[in-house]
Amino acid sequence: MWFKNLRVYRLTREFTLSAEQLNEMLEPDTFTPCGSQDMARYGWVPPLGRHGTELVHAANGYLMVCAKKQEKVIPAAVVNEKVEEMALAISEKEARSVGRKERQNLKDEVLLEMRPKAFARSRLQFAYIDPKDNWIVVNASSAKAAEELLENLREAISSLSVVPVAAKNIPQQSMTHWLTAPEAPTNFEFGHECELRDPQESGSVIRCKNQDLCAEEIHNHLVAGMQVHKLGLIWRDGVELMVDDQLAIKRLKFSDEVTEKADNVDADNAAQRFDIEFSVMTLEISALLKDLLAAFGGLNTDTASVDEIVARASREERDRQVSSEVEEVI
Question: Which of 33, 215, 296, 326 matches a 20 to 30 Å C-alpha distance to 125?
Fold first, then answer.
């Protein structure tokens, strides 16, 4: 259950729903498996899996949710091969070529035929809401997966004002400065991995793994103008992570010292074990995020959420309409 990839979003409005209220709102969108003609299904499942029934798990003020996505897998090569066979049969029988539009129709027929027999694969997407610090943390390696969860959460509760977390300083400039100095920010040490890019030449990338990041050869690349876009760091008690220029955290690895905090607490069942690990993990992540944002100059709160932008545009449109009506009266 320990998160490995963090996509962090800032709540621009106070999150006031209780665990019970949120659970009730998610229930209509509880996950159901793909039907015979469905290619994908998305819905909410209990974070505790078979050990729980609630769609929201609460601990220490944090609210965890879990989404499940099921997709049917139909290899493109198999579809294309079948389409070619059908197109060839038509060409030989009717002595004519098969056009692109007709090929697309054949492809649709093949997909329709294969869907009921296709294998379905599923994945779980965990996230938790932190109403105290106004964050939503999604355990996702890609922004697309994280935003899919947020979009479904927004639809379930009608409104969710969030923006990707942003720092006051530009991440690649800060990371480049640290490594050029070289001096890691407070409470951090350099790890053994980084990615350098040339801002003047697209596609010019150097990836370093298992390297001394303070070595002269890396320093020379920085002096030559390359910038750090991904940087391996070690935080406090040996927690390892990779942070990128979007402030996404990847390959998060909690140290034995952290996991032992959970292991040293007795649990009578799987649900209690989950609760203990969740509590330890969220406290560690909260402290980590605060130190990381401080290293980048603090949290930037100037960015407006999608909901705020839409609301602002609606207000401006209403103001224009009122002004127009007043002018007509005058």
Answer: 296
Question: What percent of the chain stands above pLDDT 90?
Answer: 76
Place of tokens 């980084």: 194
Residues 249-288 as b/e (b if ≥16 CB within 10 A, e otherwise) read bbebebeeebbebbeeeeeeeeeebbbbbbbbbbebbbeb
For 286-323, how does the pLDDT look when each residue is reduced to its tens digit (9 = 90+)? Answer: 999 999 999 999 999 886 655 554 454 455 556 666 55
Instruction: Give the pTM.
Output: 0.84
Q: 37 pLDDT band (50/70/90 cuts)?
A: confident
Lookup: tokens for 112: 């329709």
The single residue listed with the structure tokens 């027929």 is: 109
* Both structure tokens of 238: 């040996």
User: Which residue from 168, 145, 127 is spatially nearest to 15, judged by alpha carbons?
Assistant: 127
Task: Please measure the distance between the N-terminal and C-terminal CA atoms of the chain and give it in whole angstroms.
Answer: 66
Residue indicated by tokens 């130190």: 291
The Cα–Cα gap between 104 and 262 comes to 55
